[in-house]
Amino acid sequence: MKRTRDGSAKGVTEYRKPVQAAELWRGEIERLAWGGKGLARDPDGRLLLLSAPLALFPGEEVEAEVRWKARHGEGKVLRWIKKDRRRVPAGCSVASLCGGCDLWEAGGAAGELKRSMAADLLHRQLPELKDWRYVPAPLEARRHRIQLHWDGEQLGYHRRSSHQIVPVKTCPAAADTLSEAIPRLLDALQGKILPQRAQRWELATGTPEGRVVAIDEKDHVWLLESDGWHRNEAATSEAFEGFTLRHRAGGFFQVSPPWAVVAFRGVLEGWNLKGGTLFDLYGGVGLFSALLGKRFQARVLVEYDVAAVEWAKKNLATLDLDSECVASDTGKWLAENLGAAEDLILLDPPRSGLEPEVCAKLQSAKAETLVLIGCDGAAFCRDAQRLAPVWKLVDLVVLDLFPLTHHVECVGLFRK
Ligand SMILES: C[S@@+](CC[C@H](N)C(=O)[O-])C[C@H]1O[C@@H](n2cnc3c(N)ncnc32)[C@H](O)[C@@H]1O
């Protein structure tokens, strides 16, 4: 189509939406929507989606800056007229600026808020699901990986909805050893001991928790020792009751591994899964193969990160678990008619969930049990809907693996 110099299509009257001026709006939060936004209703019936940096409670009265769209409004809370009595002061000095956590002021009620967000989503997206439960995080769960940003002068987290840096010297959401390592990383960057270029730095720990590494964007690794940072490419170990896994420092692993393993173990053992072959798809370094262990006679792990696959082979061999570990894209590897009746297909895809081709191929699987794990509830519900022609969701557990944020992990059991 021909275009005029301003880019509009020639001969077509250009329609520009008028930019809506922000309005002040006052009212009550009706309920929480998925993602932690507060849902409110204007007296004329139109819906409003409101965000607030450190949690919203249903029933709170707020003043917000709102922009109206065609059918609804969106805005951010400027001040509270009536606060919920469960709201507590944030336990972090940069909580209102930093984009890392969004439930600080929910305090001990965070679990209840997250449960209600999940209930709202499930009620809307999977109305046939009757049985599900929410498992809150223990108070001591802390992050074992944090991502900081260095701009050549400052080290910190990204500001909420921005790439500006909020400088930090501690992080109460992280394991103590990681938090204490932040000033040591800053000193080394300011002292020009570590590479100077502006970039993201990951601080991570494993087992023992005192072992802290810093990883730059080129995947170079430094180990923190008493006299400073030293190049060290050794793998990170994660020891749990009954097994140890190793992975490349900076490679994917659960954010709060000790809590994640307890939580997943509880769910999988509760379902008493066992049988022939376990298909551990999006398998990383073998966490679920290790967790299910000898409950299955054999396992096939598929993962596209080649380094993770090499670690999976070593991890599962150490555990004496007969395994085939394949470095491949799951969608490409997956064949029609996968498995046999006594097999389990377990899928733990990234945040975006299952690719449509994966859902399509799973319809013809011969295995009769499937477990889907998803860290984005909306993507999980979409995938459950796509699987529904063949796979019935018979149980769902929502795990709080990401304390202080609105994120949760959904673990669903499906049967043919
Ligand atoms: C949420 S992680 C789960 C890893 C593992 N199950 C665990 O809990 O440690 C998702 C994994 O899928 C891998 N991945 C992402 N997209 C993939 C794809 N299309 N095919 C195969 N693996 C993929 C990532 O490298 C990552 O290791």
Would you identify the CATH H-level superfamily of the largest domain?
Vaccinia Virus protein VP39
Mean pLDDT rating: 94
Query: How many alpha or pi helices?
Result: 8
pLDDT below 50 for ≥5 consecutive residues: which ranges?
1-15
Overview of the molecule:
The protein is of the alpha+beta class and 416 residues long. It has three domains: 23-88, Nucleic acid-binding proteins (OB fold (Dihydrolipoamide Acetyltransferase, E2P), Beta Barrel); 126-138 and 256-415, Rossmann fold; 145-240, no CATH class. The chain is 21% helix and 31% strand. The chain is built from eight helices and 22 strands. It has helices at residues 110-125, 176-190, 257-270, 287-292, 306-318, 330-333, 356-362, 377-387, and strands at 23-32, 38-41, 47-51, 61-68, 72-82, 132-135, 145-150, 155-158, 165-167, 199-205, 212-215, 221-225, 228-231, 236-240, 243-247, 275-281, 296-303, 323-327, 344-347, 369-374, 392-399, 409-415. The radius of gyration is 24 Å and the shape is globular. The structure holds S-adenosylmethionine. Residues 252-254, 282-284, 287-288, 302-305, 308, 329-331, 348-350 line the site of S-adenosylmethionine (SAM). S-adenosylmethionine binds at residues 252-254, 282-284, 287-288, 302-305, 308, 329-331, 348-350.
Strand and helix map with partners:
Blueprint: E1 23-32, E2 38-41, E3 47-51, E4 61-68, E5 72-82, H1 110-125, E6 132-135, E7 145-150, E8 155-158, E9 165-167, H2 176-190, E10 199-205, E11 212-215, E12 221-225, E13 228-231, E14 236-240, E15 243-247, H3 257-270, E16 275-281, H4 287-292, E17 296-303, H5 306-318, E18 323-327, H6 330-333, E19 344-347, H7 356-362, E20 369-374, H8 377-387, E21 392-399, E22 409-415
Parallel strand pairs: 3-5, 6-21, 16-17, 16-19, 17-18, 19-20
Antiparallel strand pairs: 1-2, 1-4, 2-3, 4-5, 7-8, 7-10, 8-9, 10-11, 11-12, 12-13, 14-15, 20-22, 21-22
Helix pairs in contact: 1-8
